[in-house]
Amino acid sequence: MNNNLKSFSIKKATYNDIRFIFKLYNDGVRSGFFKNKITITYKQHEKWYKLAIKSPIVFIHICKNNNIPIGYIKYNFIEKQYAIISIIINKKYRKKGVASTLMKRSIKIIYKKYKIKKFYAEVLKKNLLSKNFFIKNKFIKVEYPKKKTTFKK
Predict the structure, then answer these.
(1) Taking phi first (over 0 means left), then psi (-120 to 50 degrees means alpha), and beta for anything else, what does residue 108 get?
(2) What CA–CA distance (Å, rounded) separates 87 from 102?
(3) Are 86 and 73 in contact (CB under 8 A)?
(4) Which of 28, 89, 123, 128 is the most exposed place for a label (fewest CB within 10 A)?
């Protein structure tokens, strides 16, 4: 892997990113990263995605390495005051600082463009990889009922 983080970039998702996000999302479901335990069909994803990329309350960044998609960061805006963030990066790039760098860049853009100052991440209690990722990135744990842990920044 190229350790030069300058080769990594983010861009706003477009309709052309639909298949990439579909595949990576279902990979995340199969890996146990998401609360949803059942993979979705392409038809279900397409219906959601068409609405999401036009929605004023959803924003998706595509993460790239040398212009090749490697992950995505999704925000759900709540009352224009805070955002729930989720991130998934291709396995090959995990535990190398790539996701942290891209998330920091992405949060800066969201802060500047939408004036969002608070970010929350809902993480399954058993998902230690994600818990450690958000703690490492200065999110703090806040109590949340059931099987999720919520972090905020």
Answers:
(1) alpha
(2) 10
(3) yes
(4) 128
How far is it, in rounded angstroms, from Cα 127 to Cα 53? 27
What's the rounded Cα separation, in Å, for the pair 137 and 37? 26
Helix (H) or strand (E) holding 49: helix 42-52
Q: Would you state the torsion angle of the CA atoms of residues 151, 103, 3, 30, taken in this order, to the nearest 10 degrees?
A: 70
Buried b (16+ CB within 10 A) or exposed e, 117-127: eebbbbbbeeb
CA 133 to chain CA centroid, Å, is 12
> For residues 93 and 100, what is the distance between their CA atoms, to the nearest angstrom?
11
**Tens of pLDDT, residues 67-87:** 999 999 999 999 888 999 999
Cα–Cα distance, 43 to 49 (Å, whole number): 10
| C-alpha–C-alpha distance, residues 133 and 153, integer Å | 13
pLDDT digits (tens, 9 = 90+) for 138-148: 999 886 655 55
pTM score: 0.89
pLDDT higher than 90, residue 23? yes
